[in-house]
Each structure stands twice: as structure tokens, then as C-alpha cells.
Design brief:
The model has no long low-confidence stretch (mean pLDDT 93). With 138 residues, this protein is mostly helical. The radius of gyration is 26 Å and the shape is elongated. It has two domains: 80 residues; 42 residues.
Length: 138
């Protein structure tokens, strides 16, 4: 009878042996959660749950071996997880906002506003921040 952590390590080793993914245990655990969610949504209410049948043993422990379909699904979910972009940091959001603001200001300059008029526009935005119309309400 294996613990869940031992089973995940076994699954990790298996998919790495078969597909050379270089997966780590945390990725495979996340992939299993996605597989479990998907399999549970496919379960027939009159049948035993898929996860209970194919991933757990009779002593309520976890199986370390995988059949071909589940091995392929776990590997596929690992690849899906890897293909999702990492969430942006606050620094990246600030950089994106800076680039957007600068681009808009350059467009206004191209349309005829002077640097002094651009500065006046930014001072109005700062005033709106101070008044609570932008950012934290007053």
C-alpha cells in the first residue's frame, strides 16, 4: 500500500521513463488533479468511480503503476500545465502599463500635442488619483 506521495513519485518516474519529460513530482501531482477532475466528470453515477478503481488499491492506498491510457493522460496534462503561461508579477504588470502609457502619449504627440501638453495631461491624471477617481477611492 503506497501513500499518495509515493504513488505520485512512481507515476513521475513512469512518465519520465516513457516520454522523457523530465517531469517533477509537483507537476505530476497537479496533472493528477486535472485528470481526477476530468475523470470524475465522466463517471457514471451507477458505476464505481474511475479514480477509486484504477488509482487506488483495495486497502485504500494508492497504486504506483499506471495503465497506458492513464500514463498518456498524465503526461498530456503535464505538457498542458507547462504550456500555460506563468502569471505575471506585479513588476511585469507595471512594465506593461508603463509601455502602454508611453505608447498612448507618443500617439498624442504624433497627433500634435507638445511635451508640455503631455505633462499637463499627466498632472491631470495625478490630480484624479489624489481626488480618488483613479486608484484607491478617497
Amino acid at each position: 500500500m503506497a501513500t499518495f506521495s509515493e504513488a505520485v513519485q512512481g507515476w513521475t518516474d513512469t512518465i519520465n521513463d516513457w516520454y522523457s519529460l523530465g517531469a517533477v513530482q509537483e507537476e505530476v501531482e497537479e496533472a493528477f488533479k486535472l485528470l481526477e477532475k476530468w475523470r470524475t466528470s465522466q463517471d457514471d453515477p451507477d458505476d464505481d468511480p474511475y479514480i477509486e478503481t484504477f488509482f487506488k488499491d483495495h486497502n485504500d492506498g494508492w497504486k504506483t503503476g499506471l495503465d497506458t491510457v492513464d500514463r498518456e493522460h498524465l503526461a498530456g496534462f503535464v505538457e498542458k500545465i507547462r504550456s500555460q503561461p506563468e502569471p505575471k508579477t506585479m513588476e511585469q504588470h507595471v512594465e506593461d502599463a508603463t509601455l502602454t502609457i508611453e505608447s498612448r502619449l507618443n500617439k498624442l504627440y504624433d497627433l500634435g500635442l507638445s511635451n508640455e501638453e503631455l505633462k499637463a495631461l499627466l498632472r491631470r491624471v495625478i490630480l484624479d488619483i489624489d481626488r480618488g477617481f483613479v486608484g484607491e477611492p478617497c
